[in-house]
Amino acid sequence: MGASGNNGKKQRIDKVLSHMGAGSRSDIRKQAKQGLITVNGMVVKDSGFHVDPYLDRLELNGEPILYREHIYLMMNKPPGVLSATEDKRDRTVLDLLKPGYAQFEPFPVGRLDKDTVGLLLLTNDGKLAHELLSPRKHVPKTYEAVVEGEVDATDVAAFAAGVELEDGYVTLPAQLRILGRERGSNVTSQISLTITEGKFHQVKRMFIAVGKKVTFLKRVSMGDLKLDESLPLGACRELTAEELSLLGADGQET
Description:
Elements (H helix, E strand, L loop, with lengths): L10 E2 H7 L5 H9 L3 E3 L2 E2 L6 E2 L6 E3 L2 E2 L7 E6 L21 H4 L4 E2 L8 E7 L2 H8 L7 E8 L4 H9 L13 E8 L5 E8 L6 H8 L3 E10 L2 E2 L9 E3 L2 H7 L7
Parallel strand pairs: 9-13
Antiparallel strand pairs: 1-4, 2-3, 2-5, 5-6, 7-9, 7-15, 8-9, 10-12, 10-13, 11-12, 13-14
Helix pairs in contact: 1-2
């Protein structure tokens, strides 16, 4: 019945459909007995029937099922939520996902502080997450921030050389750009900072090391992937094929 000949990728229908959020395995077993599942145009009443989800044409109640194992989401993380999969006290980024995404069990790739906003990638592709987070890869991450005080050329030079944090760690060279300043009762600076590592609270600690304080922090890019500025705070969407290619993933396993 349209077998692909690639036994390594064959899966039970109930596993495929439950992965795609069509219900529990018992739900799918009932749907199969009702004749609601077709494979390559033929009714299959055995929910344990094996199919190749990428090659066989699978439909449930007349609706095609477009299978994918991995999901890749861009979130514009809002303040006040944790970059975690669960927490007993605070909301996490997973609490913001639509049910259609949650069944893939995505997790955040790296962390943004609770009060930090901006680009957060969520996926269930552990291999890609490892590639992006591996210290050996030095994947650049760019932030925009508001800083108390006047950020100047001395700070730019210090960040380019690497600054010593309070625990004695010296950061890798980072690119600091001054975007603007506001002068009033207190001077604030708007900056852009690109770092190639991900130490705990690193951006904030780097500015503390030069005697300044970050009051607003937003991540705008990770590698070549840039935040979609039209994405409202708290919203997420799937990455486009072009964005996936920027991360070295194609989103499809063929």
